[in-house]
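User: What would this chain look like folded?
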Amino acid sequence: YFDEIGPYGRKMMVQSCSMHINLDFGEDWDTRISRFILSNLLVPFSSVLFANSAIVSGKKSMHKSYRRFLWNHLDPTRTGILDLKGLSGLPDKDWVIDRYLEFVLNAPLIYIEGTDESEAPLKISLDKWLKKPVGGRYPVLADLENHLSLLFPEVRPKGYLEIRTVDVPPKGWEFVPLIFYTGLLYHQHTMEKAINLLLPLSRDLNGMIHDASYGYKTDRLYSFALALVNYAIEGYNCLPAKFKGDIPVDHLIEFKESYVLNKLCFADDSIMNYSSK
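Assistant: Here's the prediction, encoded as structure tokens.
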């Protein structure tokens, strides 16, 4: 399926590695909507903060996150973020469900289990299958579940939030992205501040996601990323101990001082090591 689109699917499977962060959705709809919307808004900034895939096939690429570059070109019908263009405030539950349902219905099917390839032509969507049978049958619940498992948005709702944006950090820094997301999503006041900061950018997010593969390409990308790290430190410090376990905020503070304030990301270490060889 991906080979029909371009080389990026195969490259994604063998030349990239992500850290998936799974967090609770929340106990009420207001919290669920806020966490889901903010997780989508954060994509360009967590992409640049935690970029760590600059070396590809033993060579230096032009990207700080080659993985981000791959996902930007993989298949826009089944990847990316929720369409938030023009959103001026938090939407209601129905708006969020309808937007995600639209994404699910319009994404092409990769395959239909139990049918020949000729009976599941490329680019047939779930919506089209619901209206016209394929191989003599309409979709059932198992087909929907299979289709959902083959959609790869940056934030995938699975009864919890599966956040798929972060490149795998180097050894010793694994907890930093987790602290970042926990501080922003689990502390109500901090979450509201971050949403208010980022919502005005809703029309520009896809462009910023594109730029994020190059690192801190623009001053705006950097300034918002730094502000979000500060929010995350503030939010994490305010959380009850049960949310933090034995993971201190010091990891994120050290990351800010060693990398963010110097406009660096993890990828810069590998670039430096590559250049010194």
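The chain has 14 helices and seven strands. If you want, I can go into more detail on any region.
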